[in-house]
Amino acid sequence: MDSHRSLTSRAYHQIREMVLSGEIQPGSRIQIDQLRKSLDMGASPVREALSTLSSEQLVVRSEQRGFWAPDVSVEDFKNLLDTRLRVEAIAISDAVEHGDPAWEERIVMLQYRLNSLDRTEKAIEWEAAHRDFHHALIAACPSHYLVDFCMQLYDLAVRYRNIARPAAYPKRKISNEHQGIAEAALARDGDRAARLLVEHYRKTGEFLFDCLSEQDGAIKEAV
Amino acid sequence: MDSHRSLTSRAYHQIREMVLSGEIQPGSRIQIDQLRKSLDMGASPVREALSTLSSEQLVVRSEQRGFWAPDVSVEDFKNLLDTRLRVEAIAISDAVEHGDPAWEERIVMLQYRLNSLDRTEKAIEWEAAHRDFHHALIAACPSHYLVDFCMQLYDLAVRYRNIARPAAYPKRKISNEHQGIAEAALARDGDRAARLLVEHYRKTGEFLFDCLSEQDGAIKEAV
DNA sequence: TCACCCAAAAATATCGATTTTACTTACAAA
DNA sequence: TTTGTAAGTAAAATCGATATTTTTGGGTGA
Lengths: 223, 223
Fold this sequence. Notes:
In chain A, about 70% of the residues lie in helices and about 5% in strands. Chain A has helices spanning about 5-20, 30-40, 45-55, 75-100, 100-115, 125-140, 145-165, 175-185, 190-220; strands at about 30, 60, 65-70. In chain A, helix 1 packs across helix 3 (about 45-55) and helix 4 (about 75-100) runs antiparallel to helix 9 (about 190-220).
């Protein structure tokens, strides 16, 4: 990729992936020296990457004491989801209002791609396509501030999805939901698109919510 | 301050101030070596600070080519303001719904402090108090994601205010507007608080909008 | 005059080593 | 026991130097 030219950006992307995937456990310490060795680079690029990640909430920095993977909690996930629903509803309405033909075509293309990929067999590609699809929906929103914020929340939500580790994905046809949202967007029905998107997130959210609560329970029992 | 213990955080705050105040001109290059000397420290803390700032949109990073102060434009300010109005309206409604006595007391206290300070004679203190006041209004919003985002947008807006350099501040009594918002919030009238807050920002926004447009005109004439 | 290429200069990116800070353990005094 | 203190250890923070990359400026040929 173009953005992996410098060691700093390689470190950024790799550490980011480790946090999002749950490979680095929530609440656990992130040691610079250890990363430095496993990534085979000096401390500077690692520190820079961690600094950047910490202002994206993907890493928590404690002055003079190092870096940590953020804690997770049902409470936090509730806030995250709730914020996302409301902000992204605004973003998609804006996008529907301002989208041009290129915006439409990209949505169509990505929806097709998403349908072509098997979620479990081609997990990496599916993840990337899913993110691209949701980005494409709101990409025509004139405020890049809003779009960037939505994608930041998207990433944090994906982390919760990975950490909740659902035994199996729900049976409801997610691709149908995607199609509904895309159709509403392309039909320039902003309200409907927003409503369906919110519903889509809320359903996924509640499913994960249950997974998380079970884990919490299991942990408490173990103690 | 507590947060200035490390060189990195000193660098962060100082560079941030330089960008927000307009001391570093929009679009101009930010040279590491120059900063390193003027701040009297090594390159590492400076780079870390710049990395952090770049993911807060206060600095633009161009891979392998260094760092720059973000460009400004009327278009961008429009987006920024518009985003802010809508997101902060949500935040203050939430805060009004969830605020506790400590939240109320802090608003009262900060409004008093703000009124006691002269905007031109005690500019630094006024700025800090103004930021604290606006933060206090939304601080009871349960989603720290939303609150943090609002404050990020607040800072970007302050940058525009500093860059627009209004010859004189408008005559309208800003403290009255603040009081109106605070009263509505304390009376638990979320809708009214949101409406007044939006109005407050929009008025300031349009005022700055004019200043910026004039500057644009002046620049074009000079060329 | 203009476009193009190459060498010198400047600036960024990175590393390895040093310094500083925070945490832990051990021990002594109350 | 509890409290306080001091030495030792581990990790982060920082620095100075080196390696890479980009930019600049001048010269050449069409």
